[in-house]
Amino acid sequence: MPIDHAIQCIHDPVLAILSYVVSVLGSFTALQLAIAIPTAVGTGQRWRAITAAGIAMGGGAIWAMHFIAMLACRMNVEVTYDLPITIGSAVVAVVSCMAGLGIAGTGIFNWGKLIIAGVLMGLGVTGMHYAGMAAMLMPADTVYNSNLVIASAAIAIVASIVALWLAFNLRGWGQMLGSALVMGVAVCGMHYTGMLAASFVPQEAGATVARGVSGGYLGIGIFVVTTALLAAVLTLSLVRQRQRATVRI
């Protein structure tokens, strides 16, 4: 069937806004946690810092934003999500962010390491997005515009390089909040460019589709849980930073 007859995706504005909010909160939390990576003493402490920042960035700022935005896409066919692939896409996002943060934040910070880490992280984010798209179960086939796919990957790589530079070069609440707002725009830009690259072509009548995860309130539920977890981690991180500053005084 021609792409001209593709199913239209209309985004729910509430979920689209929530996806941006969770991306900003995840970015801000990750920037706060990344402070501990260069100053970590010992391998164990460094890995804990990398893991915490990687989960906040990959799981909160990127994957949760992606999945909430996917649920914001309303089509006139039933859409559910394959659970193992969805979980796998989250793992890809977290691991790629941990790798990027680990490479850029260990040893002397320089542009060579930053670019390598940013490309690795950006490709991981791109892989997460298209794995998440592959998790969609519906009576339609997904056809991609290759130019827009490449554009979405480029946005992800540039956003990753910027995120890593910000993580290891900025301090202060105002700077980090501004950086998190910019990162939220970049992450959402990558996602919606990737969505624009996809056309959903209906399958022939009678095609059966496997059942997956669905639910009208799933997007809001993910937002609430992710926001609560990020807020708790951010609060704990700030309390520990204040305690360390008090001890030094």
From TrEMBL:
Keywords: Membrane, Transmembrane, Transmembrane helix. PROSITE patterns: MHYT. The keyword Transmembrane applies. InterPro entries: MHYT_dom. Pfam families: MHYT. The chain crosses the membrane at residues 14-37, 49-71, 83-103, 115-136, 148-168, 180-201, 216-239. Residues 11-201 form the MHYT domain. GO terms for cellular component: membrane. The keyword RNA-binding does not apply. This is Bacterial signaling N terminal repeat family protein. It comes from Lysobacter antibioticus. The lineage of its organism: Bacteria, Pseudomonadati, Pseudomonadota, Gammaproteobacteria, Lysobacterales.
